Amino acid sequence: MPTTIILLFTLVLLQLAGYLVFSRNSDARFKRRYFPPFVTLSGLLVVLIARDGWWLAAPLVLLVIYRQIKSTQFCDFCGATSWMPQARFCATCGARLTD
Ligand SMILES: [Zn+2]
């Protein structure tokens, strides 16, 4: 049980740090480089928290990780993060989003 609390606390801290880095930072190259490992680490923590149900959580977490990485884009012009799947233009500055 204490392990679960430590994992939950780590996940909360990681999500808070992720929010600060990926929402407030305007460096699109940095975000592209570190967003996939961030999402993957977060998913791994969720699977570890599931403990005995890891075999049920793992496929769902993998699907969420894949969708999250594929649908999140970063604007080259202003560095904003677009969470909208298949968005073609930045919601902040209107620049065209590239892959
Ligand atoms: Zn933009």
How do the strands and helices of this protein lay out in sequence?
Blueprint: H1 2-24, H2 28-50, H3 54-71, E1 73-74, E2 81-82
Antiparallel strand pairs: 1-2
The structure holds zinc ion.
Structural key phrases:
mainly alpha; elongated; 99 residues; single chain; binds zinc ion; two-stranded antiparallel ribbon
Could you give the count of β-strands? 2
Low-confidence segments, ≥5 residues, pLDDT <50? none
Largest sheet at a glance?
A: 2 strands, antiparallel
Tell me the distance between the termini. 42 Å
Largest sheet strand order: 1-2
Mean pLDDT figure: 92
Integer-rounded radius of gyration: 15 Å
Instruction: Tell me the count of domains.
Output: 1
Strand content range: under 5%
Number of helices: 3
> Bound small molecules, which ones?
zinc ion
Specify the structural class: mainly alpha
